[in-house]
Amino acid sequence: MRTNFLSIISIFTICCAACSSDTITITYKGNNVEVSPAQYDNVNIVVKDGNVKIQNFVKDKEMTFVLTGESENGTFKLKTDTKTNIELDGLKLTSTEGAPIHIKNTELVTVTAVDNTENTITITACEDTAKHKATAIHAKSALAFNGKGTLNVIATGDGCKGINAKKSITIDDITLNVKTTGNNLGEDTTKMAFPGGPGFDPNNMPEEMKAHFEEMRKKFEEMHKNGEHPQIGHGGPMGGPMGGPMGGPMGMGPMQGDSIHGPMPGQMPGGPMGMGPGGKKDYVGTAKAIKCKGVITINSGNVNVSTETAGAEGIEGKDGVVVNGGEVRVNSSDDAINANGQIFFNGGTVTAISRNNDAVDANLGGDMPPFFEQKDNDKELKSAIIITGGKILAWSQAGAPEEGLDCDNYPIEISGGTVFSIGAGMGARPSMPTAKTAKQPTVLVTGLIIKKGTPVEIFEADSNGKATGSAIESFTPEIDFNGSSSLISSPSFKIGKKYVIKSGAESKVFEIKENVNF
Length: 518
Hints:
Blueprint: H1 2-20, E1 23-29, E2 32-36, E3 43-48, E4 51-56, E5 63-71, E6 75-80, E7 84-95, E8 101-103, E9 109-113, E10 118-123, E11 135-139, E12 143-146, E13 150-155, E14 161-165, E15 169-171, E16 175-180, H2 207-225, E17 290-292, E18 295-298, E19 302-307, E20 315-317, E21 320-323, E22 327-332, E23 337-339, E24 343-345, E25 349-354, E26 360-362, E27 385-387, E28 391-396, E29 405-406, E30 412-414, E31 418-423, E32 442-450, E33 456-461, E34 467-475, E35 481-489, E36 498-503, E37 506-511, E38 516-517
Parallel strand pairs: 1-5, 4-6, 5-7, 6-8, 7-9, 7-10, 8-11, 9-12, 10-13, 11-14, 12-15, 13-16, 14-17, 15-18, 16-19, 17-20, 18-21, 19-22, 20-23, 21-24, 22-25, 23-26, 24-27, 25-28, 26-29, 27-30, 28-31, 32-38
Antiparallel strand pairs: 1-2, 3-4, 31-35, 32-35, 33-34, 33-36, 36-37
């Protein structure tokens, strides 16, 4: 009897020790999974083959889940009521159906790559894209990525994203590599009044829209009589430079409208509030790399992003994107960095490359962009892209009307940092700072031919335009640009000085006469 009593005491002690722990380790071994401790008070753990489901009812403390091992067909699904930590310790987890890491939390989840470890999360297919689980890492909560290790996120399935969070995403220290290669699931033809949506008959416009167009027409005629012109920039409210070539958001038909007559109904398919040829398309189930409905903030670390297919943006924060530091490289088939809110560059080095769209695209939804150039006494517009520091290389290889830095008719604000944006803006100039928002000298250089691998250097020049001294700015492009429009800003620029930019045998001389030069 005594031996049995001691055995019972021993078992009770082990159970209590397990109950006091706030860390659960999950080790994947192919189709098998080991969980330690196997039981935890108020935590429901279900293991089936290589799949783990955890529901945590503990209210009074944070939980930590350590994921390690390897599985070629495994998942980790988590639902807790508190802040939670997930530590990745040499994990290699692949799912052939649905998100390998699926977080249903409402509170913040921190994902840490343990120091000196490499971790890979892969999704190869997903049948439930309509339920938003077609993602390697899918979270209902906000996500924070950190640690001194490496996290590779790979999505190869059609319609599969890399990282998708319903709230915000914050990145610190970690080396985060995200790559998507799957196709989108087709074009979205259901939308009207947005890029890619079908146009409708201008003769059947609502009366209030007709009245709006008539009012706009009268304003433009008055401006023309006074020798004034509307602000020119691609993708304006009525398409390109107020109804310019090939349509634009809410655009006209091809080659309709001009800086005098403004927003006239399109003569080709598209018309008001629709799209003629040349407009952007909406896709179903795009293979975006990093997406959230909140703000994406990168404070430090190394972030490397690539996408392959149409509509697959690199980094998309619906409410905004903030880069405070780190090394960020995005090579995307669509927008490299995109937001429906403001985009801030405060530090670090950012290389954003788009092959078929804008490199950096800020869309301030909800505020109607201006139709006219701002007067000193007009209400000051909110800047869409704000640059205070760091080095920003934003390159679009798509050609007109796509840009390196695009914010339609909203201004760019530059008060610090080095900026080299390459693209091809529609009309006279691409998105630019205004006299108020250019707090550091900025220049637009057009027509420069840039070749991949050939260093581009900027020198101070003498009165004859000859380079003097060593280069004050330099970079080596990764793609070719023919006849590009380059928006350049540097803390080394000084008003009253001449500069020369060189790329192989090509060169352009420019003079800084004021803070905005074009």
